[in-house]
Design a protein that fits this description.
about 280 residues, mainly alpha, about 0% strand, globular
Length: about 280
């Protein structure tokens, strides 16, 4: 019955497929291909030379470090927020959901400026931080804060709908049988959401490594210290070092493709684990 209801004429099916493929080719495949072509058009030597440059290496390591800090923080927040929203009723629940979605509606540049107003030299907490010789803006802590802000919805938003759909029956049964709250979470809740959790982690990691706007505001663009890979691309491009700029861009694109491959693998493994009736 479902196949009959959703069936369309063969020409219309091919038209829709052609439109989708053409759109992806024009706005996704061609730009990505151009990045790799430009990175390699002078040969492998200049490409590898870019990756041995001290400033570029520093930008790569800083990007990886920021992602390594950001993802676990968002993992803890995402699980806690999703668990609270999906499993409990409390005042301010709608407000919490709206706040989780806030980074989706606020420009990353605005969020970066917000941190400058809070922790900058003339910000709200600037004098206090200066007294304690703590530097946040134009330093790694500011980059981490800005990255956490723009990425914290990803894990929570992957978990909340799934947890709400699953309800609380299994957790209540486990608690009735004498399981502690922690054991219930580890043996019931977490296994039920593991694929959504991994998917959210991948998306969060990809955004953390590729964030530009908020990081650009709080970093100060200090070579070798506060430049991440996206900022290094901008600097190299502005210096007319196009091979270097596209080489770093190619690395970022490669990381994005690895994330996409991991996402596809997770979706395939998840689909393989579903009963046949549910898949259809």
């Amino acid at each position: 019955m479902r196949e009959t209801a959703l069936s369309e004429s063969r020409p219309l099916q091919w038209l829709l497929i052609a439109v989708a493929v053409a759109f992806l080719a024009l706005f996704l495949v061609l730009p990505l291909a151009a990045v790799f072509v430009e990175a390699l058009h002078r040969g492998v030597g200049p490409l590898l030379a870019t990756y041995t440059d001290a400033d570029t290496l520093s930008a790569i390591w800083l990007t990886l470090i920021v992602a390594a800090i950001t993802v676990p923080l968002n993992l803890v927040f995402g699980i806690a927020a999703a668990w609270a929203i999906a499993k409990f009723e409390f005042r301010g629940k709608s407000l919490l959901i709206s706040l989780i979605d806030l980074p989706f509606s606020v420009s990353p540049v605005v969020s970066g400026l917000t941190f400058v107003l809070l922790f900058g030299a003339k910000g709200v907490f600037g004098p206090l931080l200066d007294d304690w010789d703590i530097k946040i803006i134009f330093a790694v802590p500011g980059i981490v804060l800005a990255t956490v802000f723009v990425t914290f919805p990803f894990i929570a938003r992957e978990l909340i709908p799934l947890m709400q759909e699953q309800g609380t029956a299994e957790e209540e049964a486990a608690l009735t049988l004498g399981a502690s709250g922690l054991r219930t979470f580890m043996t019931v809740t977490l296994p039920n959401v593991r694929w959504a959790l991994l998917y959210g982690v991948l998306l969060c990691n990809a955004r953390a490594m590729g964030e530009f706007g908020a990081v650009s505001v709080v970093s100060g663009h200090i070579r070798g210290l506060t430049n991440t890979m996206p900022l290094q691309v901008e600097i190299l491009y502005n210096e007319y070092n196009f091979v270097g700029a596209f080489a770093v861009s190619a690395l970022l694109a490669g990381l994005a493709l690895v994330t996409l491959a991991a996402k596809s693998l997770l979706e395939w493994r998840h689909a393989e684990g579903l009963p046949t009736a549910r898949r259809h």
